[in-house]
Recover the amino acids of this structure.
């Protein structure tokens, strides 16, 4: 039976998703207007290519410092309340930028500083925005919701720069800074309107530090997600050259003013919106790896066009690049959302954003340096070559075949641990040993199956995992790992152990005498507090 194709616009039928989508779109239009105003402010002040490119770096750099804490906070706190607080903060920063510009007190350095502070707000809110998407739509609509998330950015890129360029030309950068401040108010109002269902955690909430460490452990032991991160970095680094150097190319090569630059940037956004409409068909007819390769090649066409070709050729190829950009982001974003367990979704998304935006921030800085020393055309040429290499690398480092297909529901198959005293959540560390009796002749098969179980134990919060044999009874195998505390061990079983993880232990148990969970012991440390690793 053929699975019906999900419409690209299906998530918009939900009232809550639709309201938050519109609010994000309005806010992102303001952000792109601010980007045009900021970059053109620097161009008018005769700033170097490096300084102009630093606008991208300043807006993305906070992700490097705040992504992990932001993901931890989004998994620990009420995401709606967190987004409201951050929305108020960014509105205040945007209003202060407006005041400085209106009083002629704004300098290029101050502008970069305010851009950095706005970037801090984006870094703190991005994991929470990403993590609430599966709360708003059913699982089969997540790819469509991911593509529509791109619309809020790229649709804004189609509208915001064009409007921003006209307003900058007519009223100056301060006017677009003021409009940006107002758009943050729209976000806050929409979030206050949303009534998010309460989540009963059942187990005492983790501390932020331990939560962040658990997220890192998960990603280190998740080969599917690690490959997605690699593909993200391979694309984002060379692709950042176009966004960073487009203001210089528009001024020096295409000889545009502020409104013309807004038009060129808007063309990229139009292509991205067109890419959203085409994405369901592309996804149906092309495997994800082939789509990533084709997108990298297509994006490179726009990069080369901006460097060397006349305007009549630049505009259509920029539309192609915009569509390629959204195809790549949507493929990677949907892949990581569908591959993460729910308990670590915000932390996993924060690391994904850290890699993607961090690669953009580093790339923007380095492409600005290259352009300052070799010219923007040379920098864009190098970027295009790297993009072609990125497309070809899919043959060597593709996405994992199981990407987005494993069941991520929480398994309820574990029995409740039996203890003779009542451990406190912070008691620990706890050493867990499980003894298995393996069928004769199946030791090798059991050992191979348990290697995957060990990865799952580490992914869900355990460490120091090992599999041991008994010197007196060769058919016995003893699994041992450590949990930082009793609360962490409970979370591992109740909140973190997914159906796909339990399938691994089930496959291992098929080689044991009882085909059931082995004898389990919990050994507590004496006289010291829980270890935090």
């Amino acid at each position: 039976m053929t699975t019906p194709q999900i419409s690209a616009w299906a998530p918009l039928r939900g009232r809550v998703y639709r309201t938050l989508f519109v609010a994000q779109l309005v806010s992102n239009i303001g952000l792109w207007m601010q980007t045009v105003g900021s970059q053109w402010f620097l161009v008018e002040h005769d700033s170097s290519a490096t300084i102009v490119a630093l606008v991208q770096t300043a807006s993305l750099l906070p992700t490097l410092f705040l992504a992990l804490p932001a993901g931890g906070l989004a998994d620990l706190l009420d995401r709606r309340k967190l987004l409201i607080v951050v929305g108020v903060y960014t509105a205040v920063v945007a209003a202060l930028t407006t005041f400085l510009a209106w009083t002629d007190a704004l300098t290029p350095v101050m502008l970069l500083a305010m851009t950095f502070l706005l970037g801090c707000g984006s870094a703190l809110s991005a994991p929470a925005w990403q993590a609430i998407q599966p709360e708003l739509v059913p699982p089969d609509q997540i790819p469509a919701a991911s593509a529509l998330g791109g619309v809020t950015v790229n649709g804004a890129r189609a509208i915001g720069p064009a409007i921003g360029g006209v307003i900058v030309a007519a009223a100056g950068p301060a006017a677009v800074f003021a409009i940006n401040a107002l758009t943050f108010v729209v976000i806050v109002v929409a979030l206050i309107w949303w009534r998010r269902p309460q989540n009963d955690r059942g187990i005492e909430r983790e501390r932020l530090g331990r939560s962040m460490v658990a997220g890192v452990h998960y990603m280190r032991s998740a080969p599917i997600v690690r490959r997605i991160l690699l593909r993200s970095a391979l694309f984002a680094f060379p692709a950042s050259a176009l966004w960073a150097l487009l203001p210089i190319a528009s001024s020096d090569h295409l000889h545009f003013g502020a409104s013309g630059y807004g038009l060129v940037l808007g063309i990229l956004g139009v292509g991205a919106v067109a890419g959203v409409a085409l994405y369901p068909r592309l996804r149906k007819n092309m495997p994800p790896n082939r789509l990533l390769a084709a997108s990298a090649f297509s994006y490179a066409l726009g990069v080369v066009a901006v460097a060397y070709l006349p305007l009549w050729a630049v505009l259509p190829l920029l539309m192609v690049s915009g569509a390629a950009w959204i195809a790549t982001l949507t493929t990677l974003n949907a892949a990581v959302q569908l591959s993460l367990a729910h308990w670590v979704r915000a932390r996993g998304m924060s690391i994904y954003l850290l890699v993607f935006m961090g690669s953009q921030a580093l790339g923007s800085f380095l492409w600005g340096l290259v352009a300052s020393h070799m010219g923007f055309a040379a920098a864009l040429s190098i970027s295009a070559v790297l993009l072609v290499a990125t497309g070809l690398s899919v043959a060597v480092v593709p996405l994992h075949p199981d990407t987005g297909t494993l069941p991520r529901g929480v398994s309820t198959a574990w029995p409740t641990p039996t203890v003779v005293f009542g451990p406190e959540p912070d008691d620990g560390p706890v050493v867990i040993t499980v003894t298995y009796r393996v069928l004769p002749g199946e030791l090798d098969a059991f050992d191979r199956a348990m290697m995957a179980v060990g990865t799952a134990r580490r992914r869900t919060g355990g460490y120091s995992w090992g599999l041991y044999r008994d010197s007196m009874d060769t058919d016995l195998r003893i699994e041992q790992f450590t949990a930082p505390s009793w609360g962490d061990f409970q979370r591992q079983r109740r909140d973190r152990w997914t159906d796909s993880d339990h399938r691994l232990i089930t496959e291992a148990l098929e080689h044991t005498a009882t085909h059931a969970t082995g004898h389990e012991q919990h050994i507590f440390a004496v006289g010291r507090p829980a270890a935090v690793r």
About this structure: The chain has two domains: 10-194+211-395, 430-524.
